[in-house]
Design a protein that fits this description.
With 118 residues, the protein is mainly α. The protein has a single domain, classed as Orthogonal Bundle (Arc Repressor Mutant, subunit A). 44% of the residues lie in helices and 7% in strands. The chain has 6 helices and 4 strands. Helix 2 crosses helix 3. The longest helix has 14 residues. The radius of gyration is 14 Å and the shape is globular. It starts with a helix and ends with a helix. The chain binds a DNA duplex (13 and 13 nucleotides) through helix 2, helix 3, strand 2 and helix 4.
Length: 118
DNA sequence: GCTTTGACGTATG
DNA sequence: TCATACGCCAAAG
């Protein structure tokens, strides 16, 4: 395979995140899987960390598998994420979201997220 | 080139 | 619910 593969991975990850419906959330692992990189959730986090501010990406919809926000509770990013989520109608309790209700990778919804038919 | 670090995940107790 | 252990891999030192 090409050494340029990692670049390709980035594109897939961005696409996966951009595909999260408004008012829903997805875990890093789910993003990784959708990007064709199972088991590489850390790469997703790495990428988001390095993502420039000018990027129009719904990064706030990406949470841990536990539903917890992956940023330090005392950081500005944490508050920003909670704010953006609530603005979309997602309930955030003590830095956590009920994936059973809002998670795209939950049980509801390969249908909701996968697209029209997948 | 080896070691450490990290916006993670799953398994166990 | 919390803590510990291990797997994963790119980037930085």
């Amino acid at each position: 395979m090409n050494p340029l593969n990692c670049q390709d991975s980035h594109a897939h990850i961005y696409a996966a995140i951009a595909a999260i419906p408004r008012g829903r959330v997805a875990s890093y692992g789910a993003i990784a899987i959708r990007a064709g990189l199972p088991g590489r959730a850390r790469l997703v986090g790495k990428l988001l960390r390095e993502t420039p501010a000018g990027m129009r990406l719904p990064w706030h919809r990406v949470l841990r598998a536990s539903g917890q926000v992956a940023l330090p509770p005392d950081s500005a990013g944490f508050r920003e994420q909670c704010r953006l989520l609530r603005a979309e109608g997602v309930e955030v309790r003590h830095g956590r979201v009920a994936l059973s209700r809002f998670g795209v990778d939950g049980h509801l919804d390969r249908v909701l997220w996968g697209g029209p038919d997948s």
